[in-house]
Recover the amino acids of this structure.
C-alpha cells in the first residue's frame, strides 16, 4: 500500500533521511522505532508533503506522491496524527472533528462524527468544549478521531504515547489495534519501542536517518540488539 | 450630560470605522503572521472608488459600498500574489514583507496622486444622508446611523463567517497552525487569498465610511489610518477580531472625548497615550493571549 523507496529528505541543506526504504502492507500495523532525533517525524513529514523529498519515491497505492502539495495528501487517503497531538485549541471538540472531514461532504462528515463519538463517548460529552481544555489522553483521542474523520486508508501516528500515563497509553494502543481490525492500515512511529513492537506485525528500526534493522515485530522484540538499545527501560520514558 | 451623549454618538460612529479597518489588519496578522503596511492603501483606494461611484457615476451609496468592497478586496489579494505569497514560498523573514508592503503602499499612494490629484476631494452631499434627528438635545445624523449600521452589519457578518462556516474554520485553523490545516486538506494559499480579500474589502468600505464621515478623501488618508489601525490592533490584542472591534470603538470614543474636552491638537497624543496606559495595565491587549498561549 505504502512504499518508501530510497528517500533522501531533510531541512534546507541538512539531510536527515539518508536513503530510507520501507513498505507498509495493506491491512497491517507497521512500527517505526528509534531514539530521539532518529528521524521518525521527518519520515512522516516526507510522506505528508511537509518536508521536501530530494530523491527517491513515496508510492501510495501505486502512485508516486512525493512532491504533491501537502493539502492534497489527505485526499489520497492518508491521515496523520501528528506528534504532540496538535489539537486546534481555540476550536471546540466538535469543530476539531469536522476539521478532519474538511475535504468531505456534509453528510459523510456527520456519519463519521457519529462513528467517532461512538468510539469516544467522552468526546461526545465534551463536544462543545474548547479542545484546549481536554486532558492529554482526551486530546490524543481527539487527534486520532480527527484523523479518522477523513476516513483514511492509511493512518500515520507519530508518537501517540508521548506524555501520557501508562494506563492511558495502553488505552490508546488498544484503540489503534481496534481501528486496524476494522480495516485501517496503520504506520506507527514510536520511541516507546516495547509498546509499538508489542502491537505491530512488522517493524523498522531507525537510527540517525538510516534503517538499521527490520523484521517481524515479535522477532525484533526478542533481538538482543534491540533489547539493549531500545528496551533497556528507557524506552518507556516520560 | 447632553454633551457626553453627543460625544458618545460621535465617538461610536468614528470608532466603528476604525474597527472595520482594523479587523482586516488584525486578521492578516493573526492568520498569516504578517504585518501588512499596505493595508491603509486599500482603505484609501476604497474611498476613491466609492467617491467615483457616487460623484462621477451618480450611483447610490448602496452600490458604492459594494463596489469599494470588491475593488479593495481584489487589490488586497494582489498583495498576497505579488509580495506575501512569493515570500512565504521562500520562507523569507517577516521584515521583508513589512518593507515590501511599505513599498507597495507608497506606490499605490503615488498612483492615486497621479490619477486623482493631491488635493482633498469631497463626497457630494447626498440628500437623505445629510439629515439628522434630535433626541433630548443630542443630534444624531442619518449619516452616523448609516455608518454605524454598515459597520455593525459587516462585523456581524464577518463574525458569523469566522465562527460558523467551513471557510471560517479553515481560516481559524491556519491561524493556529498552517501545518495542521494542510493535514486536514486545507490549502494555505487559498486561505491566504480569502483572508486578504476579506481584510481588504472591509478596509475599502471603511475608506468610504470615513470619507463620508469627515467629508474628505485624499491620497494620504491611508497613512494616518494605518497608525490608528496598528494602535487598535495592539489595544485589542494582536490577531484578535473581537479585540479589534472593541479597540476601534474605544479609540474612536477616546479621540472624540479628547477633542471635546481638551483640544484637537492633542487628539492623537491623548489617544495613543491612553492606549499606552491601558496596555500597561493589560499588556497583551483587551482580548490578547499571552505569547505562551499563542505558541
Ligand atoms: N525543522 C527542522 N529544521 C532542522 N532540523 C530539524 C528540524 N526538525 C528536525 N530536525 C532534525 O532532524 C533530525 C530528525 O528529527 P526528527 O524530529 O525527525 O526525529 P524523531 O525521530 O521524530 O525524534 P523524536 O523521537 O524526538 O520525535 C534531528 O537531528 C533534528 O534535529
Ligand atoms: Mg518525532
Amino acid at each position: 500500500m505504502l512504499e518508501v523507496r530510497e528517500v533522501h529528505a531533510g531541512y534546507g541543506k541538512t539531510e536527515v533521511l539518508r536513503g530510507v526504504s520501507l513498505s507498509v502492507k495493506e491491512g497491517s500495523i507497521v512500527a517505526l522505532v528509534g531514539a530521539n532525533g532518529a528521524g521518525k517525524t521527518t519520515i512522516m513529514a516526507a510522506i505528508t508533503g511537509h518536508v521536501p523529498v530530494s530523491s527517491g519515491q513515496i508510492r501510495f497505492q501505486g502512485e508516486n506522491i512525493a512532491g504533491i502539495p501537502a493539502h492534497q495528501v489527505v485526499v489520497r487517503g492518508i491521515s496523520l496524527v501528528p506528534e504532540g497531538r496538535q489539537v486546534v485549541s481555540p476550536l471546540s471538540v466538535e469543530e476539531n472533528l469536522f476539521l478532519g472531514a474538511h475535504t468531505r461532504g456534509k453528510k459523510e462528515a456527520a456519519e463519521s462524527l457519529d462513528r467517532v463519538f461512538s468510539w469516544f463517548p467522552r468526546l461526545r460529552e465534551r463536544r462543545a468544549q474548547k479542545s484546549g481544555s481536554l486532558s492529554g489522553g482526551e486530546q490524543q483521542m481527539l487527534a486520532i478521531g480527527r484523523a479518522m474523520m477523513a476516513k483514511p486508508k492509511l493512518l500515520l501516528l507519530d508518537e501517540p504515547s508521548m506524555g501520557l500515563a501508562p494506563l492511558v497509553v495502553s488505552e490508546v494502543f488498544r484503540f489503534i489495534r481496534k481501528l486496524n481490525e476494522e480495516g485501517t492500515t496503520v504506520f506507527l512511529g514510536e520511541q516507546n519501542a516495547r509498546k509499538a513492537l508489542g502491537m505491530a506485525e512488522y517493524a523498522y528500526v531507525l537510527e540517525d536517518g538510516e534503517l538499521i534493522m527490520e523484521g517481524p515485530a515479535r522477532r525484533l522484540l526478542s533481538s538482543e540488539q534491540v533489547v539493549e538499545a531500545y528496551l533497556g527501560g528507557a524506552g518507556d520514558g516520560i | 450630560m447632553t454633551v457626553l451623549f453627543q460625544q458618545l454618538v460621535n465617538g461610536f460612529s468614528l470608532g466603528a470605522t476604525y474597527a472595520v479597518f482594523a479587523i482586516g489588519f488584525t486578521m492578516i496578522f493573526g492568520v498569516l503572521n504578517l504585518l501588512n503596511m499596505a493595508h491603509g492603501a486599500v482603505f484609501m483606494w476604497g474611498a476613491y472608488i466609492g467617491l467615483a461611484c457616487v460623484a462621477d457615476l451618480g450611483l447610490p451609496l448602496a452600490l458604492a459600498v459594494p463596489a469599494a468592497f470588491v475593488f479593495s478586496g481584489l487589490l488586497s489579494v494582489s498583495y498576497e500574489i505579488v509580495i506575501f505569497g512569493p515570500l512565504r514560498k521562500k520562507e523569507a523573514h517577516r521584515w521583508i514583507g513589512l518593507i515590501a508592503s511599505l513599498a507597495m503602499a507608497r506606490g499605490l499612494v503615488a498612483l492615486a496622486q497621479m490619477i486623482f490629484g493631491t488635493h482633498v476631494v469631497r463626497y457630494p452631499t447626498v440628500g437623505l444622508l445629510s439629515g439628522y434627528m434630535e433626541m433630548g438635545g443630542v443630534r444624531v445624523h442619518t449619516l452616523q446611523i448609516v455608518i454605524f449600521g454598515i459597520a455593525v452589519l459587516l462585523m456581524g457578518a464577518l463574525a458569523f463567517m469566522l465562527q460558523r462556516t467551513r471557510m471560517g474554520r479553515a481560516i481559524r485553523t491556519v491561524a493556529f497552525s498552517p501545518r495542521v490545516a494542510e493535514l486536514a486538506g486545507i490549502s494555505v494559499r487559498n486561505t491566504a487569498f480569502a483572508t486578504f480579500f476579506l481584510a481588504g474589502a472591509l478596509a475599502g468600505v471603511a475608506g468610504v465610511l470615513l470619507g463620508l464621515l469627515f467629508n474628505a478623501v485624499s491620497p494620504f488618508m491611508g497613512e494616518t489610518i494605518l497608525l490608528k489601525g496598528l494602535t487598535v490592533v495592539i489595544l485589542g490584542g494582536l490577531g484578535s477580531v473581537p479585540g479589534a472591534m472593541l479597540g476601534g470603538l474605544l479609540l474612536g470614543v477616546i479621540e472624540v472625548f479628547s477633542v471635546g474636552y481638551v483640544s484637537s491638537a492633542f487628539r492623537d497624543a491623548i489617544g495613543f497615550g491612553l492606549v499606552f496606559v491601558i496596555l500597561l495595565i493589560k499588556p497583551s491587549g483587551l482580548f490578547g493571549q499571552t505569547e505562551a498561549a499563542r505558541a
Remarks:
- Residues 45 and 226 of chain A are 25 Å apart (CA to CA).
- The longest helix of chain A spans residues 166-181.
